[in-house]
Amino acid sequence: MKKTGLIVLMLVMVLSVVVAGGAKEKTPGAKKIFMSSAYYTAPYGAPLQEAVREKAKELGYSVQIVDGEENADKQLSQFKAAVADGYDALIYWPGDQASSPPLVEYLDSTKLPWVAVNTVVDDSVLDLVPCMVASDEVEIGRWLGRLVLQYFDENPSSSKNMIYIEGSPGSSYTENVTIGVMEILKGTDVNILNDHQYAEYDPSKAMAIMEDMLTKFGNRIDIVVAQDGGMFQGAYSAIQAAGYAGKFGLFCQGQDLIVKEKLLDGELYASVAQDPFREGALSVEMLDKIIKGEAVDKWVPTPTGPIWAADVDDYSWF
To answer: Are residues 155 and 217 in the same domain?
Structure first.
């Protein structure tokens, strides 16, 4: 009887180990997240993706992030390969609104947990997104517009001429920020000198655009507004090289280190907040809740508002 009891006890112990091993495979630590990032190489992309990796590690997930190259067909192929490879959850950073419907429809069809981040998808498929983590892009534009008006209140000018450098045509961020800017400036005497100038979030392209604007308009310019910190960096390089540093009011959205530096130097009037670290972390936090079957809001906004030189210690910079 003792021998039989010992054998039974050993079998129970072995079964316990096997069951425990099986249960371990089902914990969040065993789950794999796949992310396709349309703006993998953009200045904003690096800190957002870093935050995704850090938050995923903190919550016990492994994560792979690939470059979607602002190409919807490529991103769709990437997601199909990820699903075939057995990934458990997905994060989608769209390149633009117009190309997002086929991807959203595919992601919805997988029945896997997923979220979209940063670029708002097309309205026609927004209801299919379990959770959209993004800034209120129109409000970012409104803040840029409000800051422009405040600047001219403090620095009166008879001309109020503005150079405006935008991101990418078709990008929800580019279009929505411009909607917000124009909403505030409509009916005022602020004059935008240039037609649409798209730098595609590329500092070198922004520099080339600004060089052209300086050649065309020179001292007629009162202020320069760039839609993000990377493009501000390029525009500022052109302004500095041409000897115009300190002669224009400068504005941008962003938390790049160059933005912090120029705020503290007094050369940048103000910036508008959009925190890539918070946005990346929130996307993983919301995905974790969806994986666990918890309720999440369909829209999770990241905070925005003006950043002044006195505020720099309250923000993260990259």
So the answer is: yes
CA distances to 50, 102, 136, 284 from 67, in Å: 14, 18, 24, 18
Residues 169 and 99 in one domain: no
pLDDT at 123: 93
State whether 142 and 268 are in the same domain.
yes
Tally of domains within the chain:
2
pLDDT above 90: percentage of residues in the chain: 84
Has residue 158 been placed in a domain? Answer: yes
SS (H, E, C) 65-118: EEECCCCHHHHHHHHHHHHHCCCCEEEEECCCCCCHHHHHHHHHHHCCCEEEEC
Q: CB–CB of 81/52 below 8 Å? A: no
What is the Cα 254 distance to its own chain's centre? 10
Kindly report the pTM of this predicted structure. Answer: 0.76
Q: Which of 146-150, 172-176, 274-278 has the highest mean pLDDT?
A: 146-150
Q: For residue range 238-256, what is the model confidence (pLDDT) as tens digits?
A: 999 999 999 999 999 999 9
Q: Which domain holds residue 248?
A: 137-272
